[in-house]
Design brief:
Blueprint lengths: L8 H4 L9 H16 L14 H7 L20 H14 L8 E5 L2 H15 L4 E5 L5 H9 L2 E5 L9 H10 L5 E6 L11 H10 L4 E6 L4 H6 L13 E5 L11 E5 L9 E2 L4 E2 L9 H39 L12 E5 L3 H6 L3 E3 L2 E5 L6 H13 L24
Parallel strand pairs: 2-3, 2-4, 4-5, 5-6
Antiparallel strand pairs: 1-7, 6-7, 8-9, 10-12, 11-12
Helix pairs in contact: 4-10, 5-6, 7-8, 10-12
Length: 404
């Protein structure tokens, strides 16, 4: 037993100590994470994929994908893998080959920032519309860009209220519109219908840009054919997370932007690269990890993963309702919404909560055993405070591309 096992992690890691037991601190971190894994069901990170080969082979050096993904100079980068990842995601989304560009980001927030920055540069007087269920990064980015944001109401299930969008656009029809649709809202995994959004813009003869924040649901919906970035969609950009459905063990993501939307970038002399990305230097290891996930499982493998996760979510809804907890989910969703449990249950189980509503997320790697254990704890706890279940469309929400 090391002398640090009786200390808190903060005390053990304190660098002001004369001697720090590095191994003990690392053991502490791994032990805490392992202990929490069985009850961590509230946040969207898949845990079923094995990335140890990539970490072992590439994890001991810097892989810096500085510059544009199309740049080929330099050494110790993985831009060739990054280009392959971008092409696969764009193909899966049916994005036109002659009007696409993208790169591997640090996550959904950077993807949203990159896309909205490009849109704002093209339409500097635009009003940026986003729903009140949009990710918290959206109003933050609007503020960073110095743009004017307009919040749009949502229906009880979390989907955008298109009548309210129409009213807001009508009041501001003299300006272009940048509209952020969400494909998988944070709390309920609701999906905004981009066909309805386009109809609002067309009705009011407002031009601009349509962006989709699809951090959670982008790849699963694309694999279903329900999310497409073809010319018919009218979608100008999309942001997707890499550490959610693909479970990459470092925060990352992919942003895709129509090449026709972007403005020319400057060339940096000392790096001999184009400055097209938000961060400049980018994690080449993340690109390699994403490439590995795609190369080892392919479309069919990842579609199977999504299907199994949705089946588990449906099972969780049935089990929760069977013990008196009125849970629900969208048909496409991994997310199961339920009344917020007691503090006793929440101390054990890592859930995401917002007042009277909580959710668990049946990401790939979550097991029937975990769901059964959670349901058993709920059944033994106090009965839930009843909350109204939102009225959902009989066939679930529309897809972002407007097709069913």
């Amino acid at each position: 037993m090391t002398r640090y096992q009786s200390l808190s992690l903060a005390d053990a890691a304190d660098l002001s100590r004369a001697s720090v037991d590095v191994t003990a601190v690392l053991d502490h971190l791994v032990g805490d994470a392992d202990a929490a894994a069985a009850t961590s069901i509230g946040f969207p990170g898949a845990v079923d994929l094995d990335y140890s080969e990539v970490i072992t082979r590439l994890g001991n050096r810097l892989w810096n994908n500085i510059g544009d993904p199309l740049d080929e100079g330099g050494t110790a980068h993985t831009r060739v893998l990054e280009r392959a990842v971008i092409a696969w995601v764009a193909d899966t989304l049916a994005m036109p080959t002659d009007d696409r560009w993208g790169y591997v980001t640090t996550g959904g927030t950077e993807g949203n920032l990159s896309a909205l920055h490009a849109a704002h540069r093209r339409h500097p007087t635009a009003r940026v519309y986003y729903s009140t269920a949009a990710h918290y990064s959206i109003p933050k980015i609007v503020h960073m860009l110095g743009a004017r944001g307009v919040a749009v109401n949502v229906h009880p299930g979390g989907e955008m209220d298109y009548a309210h969008l129409a009213a807001q656009v009508s009041r501001r029809r003299r300006w272009p519109a940048i509209v952020v649709a969400t494909a998988g809202t944070t709390l309920t995994e609701a999906v905004d219908d981009t066909a309805s959004i386009r109809a609002v813009l067309d009705e009011h003869e407002v031009h601009g840009h349509l962006h989709v924040d699809a951090a959670l649901s982008g790849i699963p919906l694309a694999l279903d054919g329900r999310l497409r970035l073809d010319d018919v969609s009218g979608i100008g950009s999309i942001a997707i997370s890499g550490h959610k459905f693909l479970g990459v063990p470092t925060p990352c993501g992919v942003v895709l932007i129509r090449d026709s939307v972007r403005k020319a970038a400057g060339r940096i002399a000392y790096t001999a690269t184009l400055d097209t990305t938000v961060t400049g230097s980018r994690c080449g290891l993340a690109a390699a990890l994403l490439w590995h996930a795609i190369a080892t499982h392919g479309r069919e493998g990842h579609h199977w993963r999504a299907t199994q996760a949705r089946r588990l979510a449906a099972y969780a809804v049935d089990q929760l309702n069977a013990v008196g907890w009125p849970a629900w989910r969208y048909p496409h969703a991994f997310t199961v919404v339920l009344p917020t449990p007691s503090e006793q249950v929440r101390k054990k189980w890592v859930l995401a909560s917002d007042g009277p509503i909580s959710h668990l997320i049946c990401m790939p790697g979550i097991t029937h055993g975990q769901i059964d254990a959670f349901v058993a704890d709920l059944a033994a706890a106090a009965p839930p405070r009843l909350i109204p279940r939102p009225r959902l469309r009989p066939d679930g929400p529309p897809s972002p591309s407007g097709t069913r």
